[in-house]
């Protein structure tokens, strides 16, 4: 045995203590999910709850196995360590194996896993069971935002005149099952609202099912989880679960269009800018029902967010910025991203078609976005993927915001 | 097999004056040369193994710097060190580098260097192909990394899903570099796999049946079979992608009716066996080290071997667990959940057998032993989190979050890399003739264990609390700040442990002059590679030993009584082989052609990207290289060895003292693997 070094011994003790403390702290942290809007450990709907009921015992079993194996290795390392006074020519008993033991520890884990398998299969069946009376919503991913189509008249078609097209935020009634179908208009994305269910990839050309249901009204955040290119990190989504009555009002409002002319002179000017520039990609129903064909660079995904009812949403640009409740109260010039504030841009009465309280609108961020969108969120407009810098004048921006504020 | 008998090219050694050469026939480089030039033409499996290791450590530093960039970017919300575009390139190249240019080649380094020694061979079956494998790997890796200087690295992730890997979504050449670079390293892996499989099956020392092979050799064999069948699947997918990207084909074009899941299936049919072929060499290494320092045999040799083989088979039936959320349907999900669960069984068997090997032993905690125990404990964590992924509904929450990042780093760093570190410390004296400093080695271990856990353990909770993978930024308010800071601190601790390892290499080298040489057998080890001098002489064994049981070398030193007691029957010095001049041993001659042939491939690949005329130049180099290779005479004309058909081993010496277990050393004269190797390689 080489001489023991004090430095090494100190390092060893520090490492063992820190790692033990670290593991304990991590286990403890799993019980603190407040202020963690994307946590998977605090289910808010039946699907996420049945996953949780499966996960907890599996983690418990894994934890026990972990303690047993690591404990055994540490204990054996201590108990059977060579000592300085040992005779180097004296050897431990030469055991080559014990077949029955080895068969035992082949079968035992297989039995434990068989138990886990039963729970797994039952949960898979549960998660795939179709719910009666569910609302059908098609969720389409594209770089780097989400589009939602509601089959309001339940005819199996998401594109009828009776149906709803919206973007960025998904509004659902609390306590009622939603049958989501995911798909994509460009690359593979993944739709994930951890509070409500696991994720489901949105694959171009495929239609993948996913159940969602929120037990209580509230805001449930999500994040695209299949790497989808440049702004993957900024492709977020948000489910706004509301009481059933509010949902019905929301649906009625979403079915309206905006054919009425604005009255405010600024908004009238803003609408002209809209028709000249924004309408190349975006749609406002009743104003330009089909996007103009003059797009300088055709969008790869073929679609931009429908802005007919922009102001009914609390967030924009892939849910990374708040449309309402905007800025740092101490310094209104500081832009706050959505994740920074507990409330996700509350649209208030505008959600169901009520008046927009313009004082609450996050003008600073919205104007910054119109000034130079690619500076606010990495995009690739030169290749038809994302919003370009439209080089608007300050007057145009002002007027455009005034117009957008009418889109309740 | 050609060119050995009488004919215009038969350059009978020692008879060079009767030879005439057709165009393109060059004599082979001189064997026995030293200096840097000898490394370029070498076909010696040991030099090739060392070059694999050195190149892999070089790429490890590149991949490590990329990892540190990632960790600095994620130190706090809204990191500004890297742009989104740069971050996507960095994490793609980090994963690609660590997998294809670090873990796989370190496995190849150990396989190349050790496996022929463990089976008592002179060299691998096809020495020139072996050299070609290395150069193809190195040039492929350099080609891949040259993308940084030629318009940016790949930005599609190491898994590079379609259609995001198409030209529309990734218009730079990064993915072309990724694609063609990995096709080249794939050729290297495939050539290596065939070579090593043939070596293990055909070139074992007399008496070494399959069930007497060292476990590392067994794991190498399983690994090479996995490579042999897995790499072609990736290469096929990459050729389709190359057609799409460079020649406007439509294999993954959804608008033309493609199903993008095709890529996912092909990638993971390669990708999951890939995981096992990365970890099995490390399993083999610790299976050699644990018994050595427990001073008792591996517990349940057949179980360890067969569980490795079982992993090799079952590894083909679990790929779609990477696709639980991709929409493959509940039946497929259930099937792959169950297969994935049960692949944990053979893996668990290994852990328990290693633990039982330690039980009742007399454990000395040298650096290799510490790293081996590090593998057992850390891999267990990765294995357990792996089982939680097999619970498919749970995986729908966990997949593509940092929980997965934690899992596979516990497998690939805590498992494979800790095993490799154990192997470096264990085999360093055999390879370089000096021991690495033990005090620094132990400090290295504890620092690495600390840094590793600080980096990757917090990622479990980050993932479970919703942090997605592959995001260059996150906002405040999600509760990710604390654990990201811990992970970044851990990453720098880990980096410092790597720096300590590199320091130890040079420090120990400088101190080695004043220390006694480690000798053939510094650890009182078990397998036959320890009975040859350190560093290994060019000819490996002289004479080739005859093997009679597992751990043959051990039982030349010790005998076992009926009740399991061990008694020394021979002094180590009497059992080990003495250095001989090796003049009478026929070794494969060096060759110019492997490096030429390999060099043509990146040239052709640059040509495919930038200018097809350049591709033509590459193709000419490849064809020219093959031409030269085929016509090359079998020998360096000046190589001196007895050419009477039987190399003599009379001067070997050591085996005379062997007692008890191995008696007929000179039978090995009938089977000289080098002779075989020469004629076919």
UniProtKB/TrEMBL annotation, chain A:
Catalytic activity, EC: 7.1.1.9
Domain Cytochrome oxidase subunit II copper A binding: 132-253
Annotated Cytochrome oxidase subunit II transmembrane region profile domain residues: 32-131
Cellular location(s): Membrane
Pfam name, any one: COX2
Gene Ontology BP annotations: ATP synthesis coupled electron transport
NCBIfam families, per database record: CoxB
Protein name: cytochrome-c oxidase
UniProtKB/TrEMBL annotation, chain B:
Segments of skewed composition (Basic and acidic residues): 638-647, 672-681
EC number, UniProt record: 7.1.1.9
TM region positions: 50-70, 90-111, 132-151, 177-203, 215-241, 266-286, 298-319, 331-353, 365-387, 407-428, 440-462, 482-507, 603-630
Keywords per UniProt: Cell membrane, Copper, Electron transport, Heme, Iron, Membrane, Metal-binding, Respiratory chain, Translocase, Transmembrane, Transmembrane helix, Transport
Signal sequence segment: none
GO molecular function: cytochrome-c oxidase activity; heme binding; metal ion binding
Compartments (UniProt record): Cell membrane
Pathway terms, separated by semicolons: Energy metabolism; oxidative phosphorylation
Main location: membrane
Gene Ontology CC: one annotated term: plasma membrane
The protein's name: cytochrome-c oxidase
